[in-house]
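User: I'm putting together notes for a lab meeting next week and I want to include a structural view of one of the chains we've been expressing. I don't have a solved structure, so I'd like a prediction I can at least talk through. The sequence is below, exactly as it appears in our construct file.
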Amino acid sequence: MDSGRRWWLIVVAGIVAGVYLCDSVGYEAGGALIAATIAGALGWRWYRKRNPPAGPSVRCVRCGATLSATARNCNQCGSASWTYIN
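Assistant: Thanks for the context. Below is the predicted structure for the 86-residue chain, given as structure tokens.
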């Protein structure tokens, strides 16, 4: 399925969901829920722009010391073995 049809389906699904939402809870409550959803999405984007998620830390396999992302070996034990720890 090409991307043109995919976007068309997403838009139609959103319109149908909005119609069902407003029909079931009323236009005031439906509008408030849609506005709250948009405000929440924008707030989340603003928060993540200011506070990006931390990437996985690089740790030495032998001693567990935290290493820089560009380290070639551990400063404490000299091991060249490392792993990512979430």
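A couple of points you could mention at the meeting. Residues 27-50 form the longest helix (24 residues). The chain has two domains: 3-50, 54-86.

User: Perfect, that's what I needed.
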